[in-house]
Write a structure and sequence with these properties.
With 77 residues, the protein is mainly alpha-helical. It has one domain. Helix content is 73%, strand content 0%. It is elongated and about 65 Å long. Keywords: Plasmid. This is Antitoxin FitA-like ribbon-helix-helix domain-containing protein. InterPro entries: Arc_rbn_hlx_hlx, FitA-like_RHH, Ribbon_hlx_hlx. One of its GO terms (biological process) is regulation of DNA-templated transcription.
Length: 77
């Protein structure tokens, strides 16, 4: 797994991160990994939301079949 180096982090931020890690019972490295993983997931979620909204706008003027109606037809077969 690759390493990441963060330069020029101010002392106050580092102390807050260390305090957060202590409060969660984790090492500083584990806390930073979790923060970065959560940030990466949020970025992915924002991208997915944007794509879904784009798709919704693109399909807005089309007629869509009622899924309940289709399920009923399938069950009657």
């Amino acid at each position: 797994m690759p390493d990441v180096l963060v330069r020029d982090l101010d002392d106050a931020s580092l102390e807050r991160l260390k305090g957060r890690a202590r409060a969660h019972g984790r090492s500083l490295g584990a806390e930073l990994r979790l923060i970065l993983q959560q940030a990466a997931r949020q970025a992915d979620l924002a991208t997915a939301r944007a794509r879904a909204e784009q798709m919704t706008r693109r399909l807005a003027d089309r007629r869509h079949t009622d899924g309940v109606e289709l399920l009923g037809e399938d069950r009657r077969r």
